[in-house]
Amino acid sequence: DPASYLNPSIKVGAQITEVIQVKSGLRRRAARRRALELLTAVHLREPELVYDQYPHELSGGMLQRILIATAIAAGPQVLIADEATTALDVTVQAEILDLLADLRERTGLALVVVSHDLAVVAQVCDEVLVMREGEVVERGATADVLYHPRHEYTQLLIAEHEQYGLDRYLDAPNDPNDPGPAEQRKELDGVH
User: Fold this and answer.
1) Triad 65, 66, 69: Cα angle to 5°
2) Annotated region Disordered: where (predicted)?
3) 23-54: per-residue pLDDT in tens?
4) What gap in Å lies between CA 121 and CA 112, rounded to an integer?
5) Residues 6+ apart with CB under 8 A from 33
6) In degrees rounded to 5, what are phi and psi of residue 93?
7) Could you tell me the pTM of the whole model?
8) How far is it, in rounded angstroms, from Cα 47 to Cα 13?
9) Spatial distance between the Cα atoms of 114 and 168, rounded to a whole number of angstroms
10) Which residues have C-beta within 8 Å of that of residue 13, sequence separation ≥ 6?
11) pLDDT at 189 over 50
């Protein structure tokens, strides 16, 4: 829940401004200008209005954008997006994923996505680590891992998530005879 990361009694703009002041040493007025720039950068309409609102006055998608703005305010080289689209409707989820991809492209920010949603992983990740009980069981280029999973756990994950249409987010496999995830799922029907 994005709201749980923000102080409910302080306007969101003041919270972003505080991070900017602490991390960059800017004075209040300059930090406010930078906060408004960040609110614009995360595609919030009417950043001046949003700046002066409390968290409870904003939607989940808007709050997620505010958290992203706050995170990039410090100028990190790496952004960890831990379940960044959980509990958001499909439209807002797509907007947040597009925003993260856009930030990555524009700023060179390294993006680490933690997600149980393989469609999210397929859409925004170049490489993937599959973990089970805290251990890495498979690693590689996203399309390779999702089309050619080697570990049984990865195969089961893909089979379980196939209904969400992973294919639309992935480039076709290099081998035109490769059946891809749908056929692999059929092969796994007997695996438990």
Assistant:
1) 90
2) 171-192
3) 999 999 999 999 999 999 999 999 999 999 99
4) 10
5) none
6) -60, -45
7) 0.74
8) 9
9) 20
10) 32, 35, 36, 39, 50, 51, 52, 53
11) no
